[in-house]
Write a structure and sequence with these properties.
heterodimer, A: 291 residues, mainly alpha, 12 helices, globular, B: 285 residues, MetI-like fold, 77% helix
């Protein structure tokens, strides 16, 4: 009896340890392949060259064009998702009736479960043609349209995380503000939002990390042309879209072109890893505890 | 007096913004889905579901794609369900508060934020190359399992935590061992919550495209897979392939395939939401 209990505990522990193994595996795979990449390409060129053409005859290995593409779509996505998501969260928590909230929340969640490849279709087939009516010089592939669509996709993510943070603030704080004669607006922005600020900041950071790692929308609608630019109307390529582009083609195993996806991958991983850890750190250090 | 009027104005303005933002999001959702239905509904037929892919858009179907999706879904469930639930139970019931459990906790929070395409790179090196599985269903299912493990673990922990201590203590008092208590009391009591989490995770896996492209799942597969070591394609990859083509007929095919993919996703999510609702109703100990 005692033995089987011990065995079961070991098996369960092994399941939990698998998650550590996954992290170790990811880091190991990325580092090993990246090291072998940097044996052939100098790390200075990689970080400063403004051309990324590993699949052409004239090869250059500068990550800056992919970084600028990623940054551009991320900034556009966040400037859509953050304000809209926050307004929705504050509205649902401070203004809307309970019934309205109960109906609207699950509907908003639908936006979050639509597969990303479907959003790519929307960006290419609906949003780009629509934007071309407003901005005639907009190219058929561009950063603007996938950026906006990515933002729409992230809205429920921001709003539900921020709302959790807002609803964790005790009602007594709100009642105290009302008691002092504050309007709903003053209560929301001078009491509730500051009280929930760490949770709201975490939702923003995680949204950025999401946008950086998003793949299919940009692979479909942004064009696959690495370009060192911050112009949202021309075709660009993000780090993630480049990895997809290479994977769709026939790049032989072990070649330098094959290793580029790991060099791109480790760059991506470093950014999201830092952002995720910052958010975790804020959560443990600054999360307001209300009893 | 003036400032009070201004504050009232702020209040109304923000209320207007809130309603606008919420309603616009829902409107966009309706427009998107309406557009898809409008484009793809006519193409959807029994023939479309049962045909193999072809160079000619009108003859192409999604048989290999949805068969692949089904295979991947079943294999991913079989792998991730026991492992994820096991890990969740360990962390909640056995993992003593210590350095290891803190490390595990940070690690899982981190894994949940790793972009899915990075899991693809891991799967490519470890399952496809190192373990020599090739670009098979098994390699794909293992990759997706690692991807959704954090979701299942977090859901399991929450469900297990919600079980009242009194039930466990009563079980111990009757002489049950730790595992007997977990197996006979904790798990049945938390199963609704766990199942909800697992279904949501599976629905996420069904929609994933990037990691499967990276491990080398093909855009064109002439036959439906017949075993876990076969090459495969899935619905999202088929959609991606069709969207990328310039001809309009393929775009219509993509829209039709999207209807099928959305149907699968929405049904899974609907079931999960229903189970959560039922479970919360029952949750009055």
């Amino acid at each position: 009896m005692k033995v089987s209990e011990k065995v079961i505990e070991k098996v369960l522990a092994a399941c939990a340890l698998l998650t550590i193994l996954t992290t170790v595996g990811i880091i190991l795979v990325l580092v090993v392949e990246a090291i072998s990449f940097f044996k052939e390409v100098s790390i200075v060129d990689f970080l400063t060259d403004t051309e990324w053409t590993p699949l052409f005859t004239q090869k250059s290995y500068g990550i800056l064009p992919l970084l600028s593409g990623t940054l551009l779509t991320t900034v556009i996505a966040i400037s859509v998702a953050l304000p809209v998501g926050l307004v929705i969260a504050i509205y649902l928590n401070e203004y809307a009736s309970k019934r309205f909230k109960k109906i609207v929340k699950p509907l908003l969640e639908i936006l979050a479960v639509v597969p990303t490849v479907v959003y790519g279709f929307f960006a290419l087939m609906i949003v780009t043609p629509l934007l071309q009516n407003i901005i005639p010089q907009l190219s058929g592939f561009n950063a603007l349209s996938p950026g906006i669509v990515m933002g729409i996709m992230i809205i429920p993510f921001v709003s539900s995380l921020s709302e959790d943070a807002l609803s964790a603030v005790p009602g007594s704080l709100r009642e105290a503000a009302f008691g002092m004669g504050s309007t709903r607006f003053q209560t929301a922005f001078r009491v509730m939002v500051p009280a929930a600020s760490s949770g709201i900041i975490i939702s923003a950071i995680l949204a950025i990390s999401r946008a950086i790692g998003e793949t299919m929308i940009v692979a479909i609608a942004a064009g696959q042309q690495p370009r060192f630019t911050f112009d949202p109307t021309v075709p660009i390529e993000t780090i993630t879209a480049y990895i997809v582009q290479v994977s769709m083609g026939d790049v032989p195993y072990g070649t330098l072109a094959y290793k580029t996806i790991f060099a791109a991958g480790i760059t991506l991983f470093v950014f999201t890893f830092i952002l995720n850890n910052i958010s975790y750190w804020i959560k443990t250090r600054y999360q307001e505890k209300y009893e | 007096m003036n400032s009070r009027v201004a504050h009232r104005y702020d209040d109304q303005l923000f209320r207007g913004m809130g309603v606008t933002a919420t309603v616009s999001c829902l409107a966009i959702l309706i427009i998107f889905i309406g557009f898809i239905l409008y484009q793809g509904m006519d193409r959807l037929s029994w023939e479309f579901m049962t045909s193999l892919p072809s160079r000619f858009a009108e003859r192409s179907g999604i048989y290999t794609a949805w068969a692949g999706t089904l295979w991947v879904m079943v294999c991913t469930t079989l792998i991730s369900f026991p492992v994820g639930v096991g890990a969740g139970i360990y962390l909640e019931e056995y993992g003593k508060k210590g350095r290891l459990s803190t490390l595990l906790e940070i690690n899982i929070a981190n894994l949940a934020g790793v972009p899915s395409i990075i899991y693809g790179l891991l799967g490519l090196e470890v399952f496809v190359r190192f373990m020599k599985m090739g670009s098979s269903i098994l390699a794909g299912a293992l990759t997706l399992s690692l991807l959704i493990l954090p979701i299942i673990i977090v859901a399991t922990r929450e469900a297990v935590r919600a079980v009242p201590k009194t039930i466990k203590e009563a079980s111990f008092a009757l002489g049950a061992s730790k595992w007997q208590t977990i197996w006979n009391q904790t798990l049945p009591a938390s199963f609704g919550g766990i199942l909800t989490g697992v279904i949501l995770a599976i629905s996420r896996a069904v929609g994933e495209t990037a990691p499967l492209i990276v491990i080398g799942a093909l855009a064109y597969v002439p036959f439906a897979p017949s075993g876990p070591l076969d090459e495969f394609t899935v619905l999202p990859i088929q959609i991606f392939n069709w969207v990328s083509r310039p001809q309009h007929e393929f775009v219509i095919n993509a829209a039709a395939a999207i209807i099928v993919l959305l149907l699968i996703t929405f049904v899974l999510n609907g079931v999960a939401v229903y189970l959560r609702y039922r479970w919360q109703q029952k949750l009055k100990w």
